[in-house]
Amino acid sequence: MNDTPGRQTSENLRPGSQSALRRHNEQLIVAELRVRGTSSQAELSRATGLSTATISNIVKALCANGLATTHPTTSSGRRAVAVSLLESPDVALGIDFGRSHVRLALASPGLKLKDERFAALPVGHLAADSIATAAVLLEEALAEKGISRSRVIGAGVGIPGPIDHRTNTVIRGAILPQWVGVNIVSQLEQALRMPILVDNDANLGALAQITWGEHRSAKDLVFLKIGSGIGAGLILNGAPYYGHTGITGEIGHSTIFDQGLVCRCGNRGCLETVASTTVMIDLLSRGEPTPLTVGNIISRAHSGDAATLRVIDDAGMAVGRAIANVANMINPEIVVVGGPLSSLGEVLLAPIRRGLIRHAVPAIGQDTIVVMSSLGDRAEALGALSLALSHSRS
Asked: Where are the alpha helices (DSSP H) in the chain?
């Protein structure tokens, strides 16, 4: 792990840096080997688009770290080097803390999932309570799978809110106000007894798309999480982008209506005040005997309920407008939408695309792909795993 667990260095964070690009390229190769099994270095080069020299160097590093093995083979009648992953007894931990849940996943360095667990949490839970829940889930998973704690190399942790990486604390404006000012790394290290790396959940969702998802070859990608909060994770030049202090992608606090509702961040008319699941629930629960849930919204939308479809359409158009501002600035190849509304599919994607096309430069709006994440609500935990695994080899 890094010398300072939980705090990523500026070199690690800077998009396009040698260490960041090397980790990304290594993840591409490992992911390809997980899918293809044994492959020659030439096949890996064709599949990933990396040069044969880059493939050779990374394969040597994987072998030196006990993650892969090579042996001579032939390909099209020519001598070649075949590469296979080795199963490692080590595992990494990924944790996703949400407004009302904690999700945990264990995986080997070869990106093989060992276990996944989930626990509901009360809205407004304290950091100490949710950390204690995560510790219990971890102990249960290790015991059930027969994994020694000494084999856990570290944990990546996702939090739904802006994180100051200089202090490892959640800052004002987070979905979890009870966590503001808490040194997450310190508390988690004490509770879990392992090195910790922490990041915003949207950043981890973006990382998951290029390591576990269908977009491993994407160089410029935006992951947009729409939930009780709205955040974006950025992949620029093949690596996560964090900015100066690590606070990026706060698209939920883009102003949509100057005279709109006051947001939890203190501003008016933010995207979250018109397009979050919390706002959708409030709007659609009027006149109902009990408040609706996200599940109710999804089922009503699929059944064609007019009011639900209108609320989703308005929210999608607002999201598309906010995404257009981002797209005009960085011109991403693809925007991947995730979060609890993922199963809505085109019902949500269609208005987002309309909003993007209406407010973006025409060439950008037409050429930017907008799709739903295939990882569903697991993306953040899987991204946390990728974070832990990549830093364990840096």
From this structure: 10-13, 18-36, 41-48, 52-64, 127-145, 184-192, 201-211, 272-275, 277-284, 294-302, 306-330, 346-359, 362-367, 379-392
